Amino acid sequence: MMGRGRSGVLAALAVGFGCMAVVTARAADKPPIPPHGPAEVLFDGKGLAAFDSFLKTKGLNSDPDHVFTVEHGVIHISGKEMGYLITKQPFHDFYLRAEFKWGEGTYLERAGKARDSGILYNIQGEQKVWPRSIEFQIVEGGTGDFWMTDGAALTGRDGKRVTGPAGKAEKIDRFGKGPWQNVVGYRDPVGELERPHGKWNVLELVTEGNTVRQYVNGKLANEGTDPFPKEGKILIQSEGAEVYFRNIKLYPLQ
User: Fold this and answer.
1) CA atoms within 13 A of residue 235's CA, in its CB half-sphere
2) Are strands 132-139 and 116-124 parallel, antiparallel or unpaired?
3) Residue 32 DSSP code
4) What are the pLDDT digits (tens) for 169-187?
5) Cα-only R_g, the chain
C-alpha cells in the first residue's frame, strides 16, 4: 500500500510540474509589454481617417483604382500598385498591435514571388517608395525581419550596426530563421512563425527608448537597439501582394 501511495504522489507531482511547465511556456510566449496609456485606434473597422495614401505612380491621396479599401471591417490592400497607407501623425515610444492575413494575388515585379508587405515606422523625410524608416517585415517565410531603408540604422542583438544605404535597404534576419526562397507560398522549414495561409496573424511592435522589439504571434522575432530615426510616422505597405489588416491599435508608453 505504501509503495502504491508513493507512486501516486510521484505521479501527481509529475502532472503538477507538467502543468506548471505548460503555464510557464505560455507565459514566456506572451510579449512583455511596458506600461502604456489608452489605445489610439488607427483603424476602427470603418474608415481610413487616420491615414493618407501614397502610390508610386499616383502620388499622395490619389487612389483611382482602389488599391486601399475597407471591406467588412477589414483593410483590403490589392497589391496591384506599389505604395502605402501612412499615418497623418508621427509617434515615438509606443506599443503597436495589428493583425494581418494574406490574400491570393501577386503582382508587378512580385508576381509569383513570396507575398510581401510590411509595417514601416519611425518614418522621416519625403514621401516616396520607400521612405527612410525601419521596417517590421511581413513576407512569406520571413515575417519578423528588420529592414533599414534609405539611411535608417539599427544595431542587432549581435552588436552589429546595420545601415540602409541611400535609396536602398539592408536587413537583419529574425531569430531562428531558416533558409529562404523567394517563391509564392513559401514557409520557413526551420522556424516558421506565421500561421497557415489565410489565417490571421498577430504582429506586435514595441519601441521603447533605445530598444525596438518585434513579435509575431506572441513570439519575439527580432530585437534591436539605437534605432535611427527614433520617431516618425507609420505606414502599411502595398508591395505586390494582396493582404488584409484589421484591429490596428497604438498604445503610447507611459
Assistant:
1) 28
2) antiparallel
3) -
4) 999 999 999 999 999 999 9
5) 21
Exposed/middle/buried for 105, CB within 10 Å: 0-12, 13-18, 19+? middle
Contact assessment for residue 73 and residue 247, using Cβ atoms and an 8 Å cutoff: no
CA–chain centroid gap for 105, Å, is: 20
Q: 150-163, pLDDT tens digit by residue?
A: 999 999 999 999 99
N residues, the chain: 254
Domain ranges of the chain: 1-30, 37-252
Global pTM value:
0.88
Per-residue model confidence (pLDDT) at position 211: 97
Q: Which long-range contacts (CB under 8 A, 24 or more apart) does 117-120 make?
A: 117/77, 117/79, 117/236, 117/237, 117/238, 117/239, 117/241, 117/243, 118/147, 118/236, 118/237, 118/239, 119/203, 119/205, 119/234, 119/235, 119/236, 119/237, 120/84, 120/149, 120/234, 120/235, 120/237
Give the residue carrying C-alpha cell 521612405: 131
Hey, is 129 helix, strand or coil?
Answer: coil
Distance CA 114, CA 100 (A): 16
- Are the beta carbons of 122 and 232 closer than 8 angstroms? yes
37-252: CATH, from 3.30.379.10, 2.60.120.560, 3.40.50.300, 2.60.40.10: 2.60.120.560
Phi and psi (nearest 5°) for 164? -80, 125
Beta-bridge partner residues of 96: 205, 250
